[in-house]
């Protein structure tokens, strides 16, 4: 700044024609006034902060020496800058607060982040319409120490690390017979009965059915021998866990099921859990928007809700992944803590309820099986047997889950689909008559 001033002074000392000397002196005086007002609005020795005077220099350079209005404009600019600086300080405070919140949230997310790192590398999002979330989770590393004896059996019986598994005690012996006869009839080799008592083990052996009996010293077996359907259901999830730990995908099957084709030809294998549904049409099986009407709300009387009929926990394909094993643990844990709960309800709640305050939901991928291929007995007896076209389609399995007279209906299914007896299904009512 001193240099500039020197420059002006030097020019002042230079020679100019005599006649215009006075005029020049006046002009120079006025210019001086302007320039000083521009450069030193608070006086020559003002102690304004360095940043402020630098900013003013810049605006001065842009505007040039146009007129003497400059000081006013600069004052306006200065006050603008002052209020901006104040706002900036406030924002900085807010940002600091947000950063702190973010840090805390980040800590909470630590586990999820780790899980994410386990699952895969980070990616940039691709172009519109090309992005897909992770659906097929990686399988766990097989851990043979979970059950070496079972590992050996599975090595012999499973095909491509896949196996049908059913639990059975003597209460369901006659259904079990229809069950494995239908499986043999289709020619499915990779299936296994988990015998819950000696009699069923013998029964399977004598019928050349692959069987596995758990070690009696495993504590949870006491309910197995005497337990009814629901007690056995809780046990089922604990036993299943070992199959998954060993690295096998399991098609868990109740015994009130007739096999008509090989289900492994119809499994997608893209989800943690792929399950047959209790639904009976597209809406109920695959999900729909159920509109709830509350006229008192006037303009907002319609509330939209998401609905889906439950997955059938008696027939599902489960891949050996962390979310799958977590699901089994959650269900088994809740069934032991809440003995009155129904395993199918618990299974669905754990699968579908989202995370919310006080609750971390399961992050499992789900797929609903085709309800005509993996058919429940409501679909068969209410719809299919009355429809000429649908009657001609051959399901993969039929699950007699909706009817208590299971054995006669299973046998009728075999008669109808295997032996071609066209009227085999007709004598049954649509639903049970209590
Ligand atoms: C049900 O959904 C399937 C596809 O999932 C579709 O092909 C079929 O037309 C639908 N049926 C009805 C009655 O909407």
From TrEMBL:
Major localization listed first in the record, in broad terms: Golgi
Recorded coiled-coil stretches: 74-115
Subcellular location: Golgi apparatus membrane
Membrane topology category: Single-pass type II membrane protein
EC numbers for this chain: 2.4.2.-
InterPro entries linked to this entry: Nucl-diP-sugar_transferase, Nucleotide-diphossugar_trans, RRA1/2/3
PROSITE patterns attached to this UniProt entry: PROKAR_LIPOPROTEIN
Pfam families in UniProt: Nucleotid_trans (PF03407)
Annotated SUPFAM superfamilies: Nucleotide-diphospho-sugar transferases
Cellular component terms per the entry's GO annotation: Golgi membrane
GO molecular function per UniProt: glycosyltransferase activity
Domain Nucleotide-diphospho-sugar transferase: 188-407
Keywords recorded for this protein, A-Z: Cell wall biogenesis/degradation, Coiled coil, Glycosyltransferase, Golgi apparatus, Membrane, Signal-anchor, Transferase, Transmembrane, Transmembrane helix
Transmembrane segments: 21-40
Family: Belongs to the glycosyltransferase 77 family.
Name under which the protein is recorded: Glycosyltransferase
């Amino acid at each position: 700044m001193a240099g500039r001033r020197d420059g002006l002074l030097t020019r002042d000392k230079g020679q100019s024609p005599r006649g215009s000397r006075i005029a020049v002196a006046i002009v120079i005086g006025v210019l001086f006034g302007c320039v000083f007002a521009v450069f030193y609005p608070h006086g020559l020795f003002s102690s304004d902060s360095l940043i402020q005077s630098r900013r003013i220099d810049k605006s001065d350079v842009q505007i040039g020496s146009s007129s003497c209005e400059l000081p006013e404009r600069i004052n306006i600019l200065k006050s603008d800058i002052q209020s901006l600086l104040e706002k900036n300080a406030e924002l900085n405070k807010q940002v600091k607060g947000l950063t702190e919140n973010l840090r805390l949230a980040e800590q909470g997310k630590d586990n999820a982040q780790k899980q994410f790192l386990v699952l895969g590398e980070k990616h940039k999002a691709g172009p519109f319409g090309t992005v897909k979330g992770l659906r097929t989770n990686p399988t766990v590393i097989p851990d043979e120490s979970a059950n070496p004896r079972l590992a050996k059996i599975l090595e012999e019986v499973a095909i491509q690390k896949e196996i049908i598994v059913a639990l059975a005690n003597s209460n369901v012996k006659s259904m079990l017979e229809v069950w494995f006869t239908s499986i043999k009839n289709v020619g499915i080799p990779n299936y296994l009965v988990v015998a819950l008592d000696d009699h069923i083990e013998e029964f399977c052996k004598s019928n050349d059915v692959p069987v596995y009996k758990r070690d009696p010293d495993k504590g949870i077996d006491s309910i197995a021998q005497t337990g009814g359907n629901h007690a056995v259901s809780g046990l089922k999830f604990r036993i299943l866990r070992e199959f998954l730990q060993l690295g096998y995908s399991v098609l868990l099957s109740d015994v009130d099921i007739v096999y008509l084709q090989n289900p492994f030809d119809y499994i997608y294998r893209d989800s943690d859990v792929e399950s047959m549904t209790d639904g009976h049409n597209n809406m109920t099986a695959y999900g729909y928007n159920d509109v709830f009407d509350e006229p008192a709300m006037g303009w907002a009387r319609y509330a939209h809700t998401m609905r889906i009929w439950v997955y059938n926990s008696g027939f599902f394909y489960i891949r050996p992944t962390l979310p799958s094993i977590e699901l089994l643990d959650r269900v088994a844990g809740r069934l032991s803590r809440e003995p009155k709960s129904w395993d199918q309800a618990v299974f669905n709640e754990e699968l579908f309820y989202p995370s919310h305050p006080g609750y971390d939901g399961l992050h499992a991928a789900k797929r609903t099986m085709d309800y005509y291929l993996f058919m429940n007995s409501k679909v068969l007896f209410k719809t299919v047997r009355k429809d000429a076209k649908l009657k001609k389609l051959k399901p993969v399995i039929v699950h007699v889950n909706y009817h208590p007279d299971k054995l006669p209906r299973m046998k009728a299914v075999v008669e109808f689909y295997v032996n071609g007896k066209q009227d085999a299904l007709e004598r049954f009512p649509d639903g049970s008559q209590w």
